[in-house]
Design goal:
The complex is a heterodimer of chains A (about 300) and B (about 425). Chain A is mainly α and about 300 residues long. The two termini of chain A are about 40 Å apart. In chain B, strand 11 and strand 12 form a beta hairpin. Chain B starts with a helix and ends in a 7-residue tail after the last strand. The chains are: A mainly alpha (about 300), B alpha+beta (about 425). At the A-B interface, helix 1, helix 2, helix 5, helix 6 and helix 8 of A face strand 4, strand 5, helix 3, helix 4 and helix 5 of B.
Chain lengths: ~300, ~425
């Protein structure tokens, strides 16, 4: 017994063997050079503009804004990309593609821009990783097959798991030390030690505001807040994915009336004729042509 | 657009790219400074008045310590167009972190985080550095003002020799032990990034080994396609992946907690730095001042009163880190380490150079004249939105005691030789 349903799926696609072969070539060309590189380039830029400094510098990774801002910004692209991959292909890897793409971009930047060009040590500019959260999000979508349940449970976990995941990487930087009679964390000292001419200390947006007032549990209050905002943001970006990811054709019928057809994958097939021909299922007459399209 | 036009555009684009490439290949050279001359004169002359700046020593080896020190007077006549220095940070202007900063004290108070400075206040800063990246580096003290940006002080060259691979920046922890900030946590971070990256790509790969797009899209568009694509094995893998992810997160979190039981949050405090104030027996009032554009001179008429008991002689006018001295200034305050390119040792002239006697009040025509006004782009003052200048006047008694006055006044440009006076 086969592990996958691949044979059944290929059969159901009604593509000839050469079509199947061609589709795999399209998979390779489309997925890696176009979809993946496109996502990593644009998401990287998007993320760095909205949450860059918290992710660039070790002395920005606080209990409050880092924990709040990063998941909110990192769930945006996954929302739209998940819509696209899930709605059109039922592929549950939109979040993982987005976040791994972001990290590929970030690591290229770390090695070439921060380490090689600007001479900062890599540990000083190490990014957070939300691949764990992305996997949770994708698995939730696959298992629930509902974007609403994914927004409620998956995105909640996406944000809540952020800090525990990062703690394994960055806990060392929160060790205390004393310099010139002042208590600092190691991260503070590293931020002070590595001179950043254009990024003076006051640029840091850390540990201000009132989220810490709930018994001092700043991290978890921030994480809860972030989770709720992330749910909203995910929903908005899922709808953005819906808006920009529409695929349809305008079809001119027998009476010359233009109508919008969304099932673009069936254009030109018998099933299209069945669906959009007359009620008896007769094929479209010669006069009915594809007038214009948009995708 | 026809093929001919496309070809023409390609040729033009190729020539452009080649030109750019050749230009970069043959003319790119290291930057000699940090663009401090591009800062507007009113910003440089009326905010932070830098003096007594020292770069010591000017040659160090990797891992050896150096000192950047000096004083800043925060001008009373701070421009309206610049945000007041309520949150500032004494920084180092350098091409990347060529030195690491070990300590920074302002008037004896450690300045790890930003602080407010007082208008009219005087501050002595001492920044302890450690040589990190070998090279010939232009180093400035810098006052970063929240909302106004960095205000660069005078810059000088510092050389670091040795090998970067030998560099270490040990940090002693409160709970015991020492870590090197160059490598602390790096291997652990790479491990976790690698592990999560592996799982992420494995998850994508699980779906990538099967038809990904076209075939699935065609199936999905059909009746029953959704159910067909809902492969049971994917659901089993998803449940397994969820479990693995949650277990790994828990292992990472709790192992870090047990490894680092004592942690503190990032420190976001604000040191309170007490200002000192300039002391002088002179009282100086600027009666008028003009800027001789063709003569490259700032001329001012001062009403000076000596309320002390010793005769005092004016020897230096300094503004924007640029120093104009006469014989008195050279004799008392010539630091051979100060960069010659921002110092005019015969740049200060007075009609009457006799000392100001105790109790005496007199008018002095002070003329600071040098091409530095142009070279350092302070002549651009005429283009500023506020025609005022500021600076420090230094005078000495016979015993060598220094008296410093901060001055500021409106200034009138003189554009032509005909009315240059």
């Amino acid at each position: 017994m086969a592990l996958f349903r691949t044979a059944e799926i290929i059969k159901a696609s009604k593509l000839p063997p050469e079509g199947v072969k061609l589709s795999r070539m399209i998979d390779a060309v489309y997925f890696i050079p176009i979809a993946y590189l496109g996502v990593f380039a644009t998401f990287h830029m998007h993320f760095d503009l909205l949450a860059g400094d918290w992710d660039f510098w070790i002395d920005w990774k606080d209990r409050q804004f880092w924990v709040t801002v990063t998941p909110i910004v990192e769930v945006m692209y996954p929302g739209a990309i998940m819509y696209y991959f899930w709605t059109f292909y039922r592929q549950p890897f939109g979040a993982t593609v987005s976040i791994t793409g972001l990290l590929v971009g970030k690591w290229i930047t770390i090695v070439f821009a921060w380490y090689w060009w600007a001479n900062f040590p890599m540990n000083f500019v190490m990014p957070a990783t939300m691949i764990s959260s992305a996997l949770i999000l994708d698995c939730t979508l696959l298992l629930t097959r509902s974007w609403m349940l994914t927004a409620i449970f998956g995105v909640w976990a996406f944000a809540m798991m952020f800090y525990p995941t990062q703690y394994a990487i960055f806990a060392y930087s929160k060790q205390p030390m004393v310099v010139d009679g002042q208590l600092l964390s190691l991260a503070d000292y590293m931020g002070f030690s590595y001179v950043r001419t254009g990024t003076p200390e006051y640029i840091r947006i850390i540990e201000v505001g009132s989220l810490r007032t709930f018994g001092g549990h700043t991290v978890w209050i921030s994480a809860f807040f972030s989770a709720f905002v992330s749910m909203l943001v995910f929903t908005i970006w899922w709808q953005i994915g819906h808006f920009v990811g529409q695929s349809f054709f305008w079809v001119k019928g027998r009476r010359g009336v233009m109508s919008r057809k969304n099932d673009t994958m069936l254009v030109g097939t018998d099933e299209f004729a069945v669906r959009h021909g007359d009620l008896a299922g007769r094929p479209l007459p010669a006069a009915a042509t594809l007038a214009e399209g948009k995708s | 657009m026809n093929a001919k036009n496309i070809f023409k555009l390609c040729v033009i684009g190729s020539v452009g790219m080649a030109t750019l490439g050749l230009t970069l290949a043959f003319t790119a050279s290291p930057a000699d400074a940090h663009g401090e001359r591009s800062q507007e004169p009113f910003l440089r002359m009326r905010t932070a008045q830098w003096y007594d700046t020292r770069w010591n020593p000017q040659k160090t080896n990797v891992n050896e310590e150096a000192m950047l020190s000096g004083k800043i007077h925060i001008a009373e006549d701070w421009p309206r167009a610049v945000v007041k220095p309520t949150r500032t940070f004494i920084n180092v202007g350098s091409p990347s972190s060529v030195f690491t900063r070990l300590s920074s004290k302002v008037n004896g108070t450690p300045m790890f985080t930003s602080a407010g400075l007082e208008l009219g206040g005087d501050y002595e800063y001492v920044i302890k550095l450690r040589g990190r990246l070998p090279g010939h580096h232009h180093i400035h003290p810098m006052l970063a003002v929240n909302g106004a940006g960095p205000i660069a002080g005078p810059g000088s060259w510092m050389d670091i020799e040795g090998n970067y691979k030998d560099f270490m920046n040990p940090a002693k922890l409160l709970v015991g032990g020492t870590v090197d900030t160059e490598t602390a946590g790096l291997a652990n971070g790479l491990f976790w990034h690698g592990l999560w990256g592996f799982l992420g790509f494995a998850w994508i790969g699980w779906f990538a080994i099967r038809p990904m797009f076209l075939i699935r899209a065609r199936v999905l568009a059909q009746e029953g396609g959704d159910a067909l694509l809902n492969d049971p094995v994917d659901r089993v893998v998803a449940v397994g992946m969820l479990g693995v992810v949650l277990i790994l997160i828990a292992i990472g979190f709790y192992s870090a907690e047990s490894k680092f039981p004592y942690t503190v949050p990032l420190q976001a405090g604000e040191p309170k730095i007490k200002a000192t104030h300039l002391r002088s027996d002179l009282t100086i009032k600027v009666l008028n001042a003009d800027y001789d554009v063709p003569g490259r001179a700032l001329r001012m008429t001062l009403q000076v009163t000596n309320s002390g008991e010793e005769p005092l002689s004016i020897g230096e006018f300094t503004t924007a880190g640029i120093r104009f001295l006469n014989k008195v200034g050279v004799a008392n305050n010539l630091d051979p380490g100060y960069p010659a390119e921002i110092m005019a040792v015969d740049g200060l002239h007075m009609e009457d150079e006799s000392p100001i006697a105790p109790g005496e009040t007199k008018e002095i025509l002070l003329d600071s004249r040098d091409s530095l006004w142009e070279v350092q782009r302070l002549m651009d003052l005429v283009n500023d939105p506020e025609q005022r200048f500021g600076g420090l006047i230094m005078a000495w008694d016979e015993a060598g005691n220094r008296h410093i006055n901060s001055i500021a006044a409106a200034i009138i440009p003189v554009f032509t030789r005909a009315n240059a006076g």
